[in-house]
């Protein structure tokens, strides 16, 4: 059986992902020329590498079209409901750290916690004639956190495809749910993270698609063991 591992072909996780495999004793070389989207691993003849973007990798693992991948936990949890039934998070790799957070305008002086936001959402329609609007590209994580965990039902998600932090200032939304690492983009846009507003601490993970043909396949466990030993 050939085992396919999807690794980032570009973007912020590319270099660190390759370095982990190198340390794991799995040296990757491109098949054909340097711009090829296929690779192989020296000494591991039954393993092939597919180079994809981090977001494509999460989709391919969730659909089971690749066996393993390196991608952000946020992308997996946003992409698939009940993701732990579909995939196994085999290892947290120690890079690509970012938090998915709820952030509100700094000038909302009396809003510091999710409980405060529950009150704001409840009053919003009476005060403003419409529901609280949340800009995000993380609509699944937002719905789980607001509706299931905090019982907030009165809100509207405004899907954002970029520059989410600008939405409150431009008036297209009241608050945001987005990723932050250094916090500088939030500060530049006069937004603050709620004290209990971290939805997910994300980082790059080695993720395995739960596939029946993995049982009894020694190379599957060998890959997991090699990567864990490299951490
Ligand atoms: N400062 C950051 N901003 C955004 N994502 C970050 C940051 N730090 C780490 N990440 C993580 O990087 C991953 C996204 O990486 P990247 O933007 O390279 O991939 P992508 O979404 O596939 O790229 P593209 O949008 O170009 O297709 C996510 O898992 C995210 O959590
Ligand atoms: O907390 P910080 O360190 O400021 O990082 C957070 C910002 O970085 C990312 O945007 P980026 O400009 O990298 O582009 P992207 O959304 O295309 O990844 C992300 O979408 C945030 O806007």
Could you characterize the architecture of this molecule?
It is a single chain. This protein is α/β, with parallel strands linked by helices. It has two domains: 3-96 and 203-229, Periplasmic binding protein-like II (D-Maltodextrin-Binding Protein, domain 2); 98-201, Periplasmic binding protein-like II (D-Maltodextrin-Binding Protein, domain 2). Helix content is 34%, strand content 32%. It has helices spanning 14-23, 54-63, 73-79, 83-86, 114-128, 139-149, 167-170, 184-188, 218-229, and strands spanning 3-8, 28-30, 38-41, 44-52, 68-72, 87-92, 98-105, 132-136, 155-159, 175-180, 191-202, 204-209. The strands form two sheets. Strands 2-3-4-1-5-12-6 form a seven-stranded mixed sheet, with helices on both faces. The chain has a five-stranded mixed sheet with strand order 9-8-10-7-11. The site of adenosine-5'-triphosphate has 14 residues, from helix 2 and helix 3.
Kindly list the characteristics that best describe this protein.
D-Maltodextrin-Binding Protein, domain 2; glycosyltransferase; 231 residues; binds adenosine-5'-triphosphate; binds 1-O-pyrophosphono-5-O-phosphono-alpha-D-ribofuranose; alpha/beta; seven-stranded mixed β-sheet; ATP_PRibTrfase_CS; 9 helices; 12 strands; 2 domains; single chain
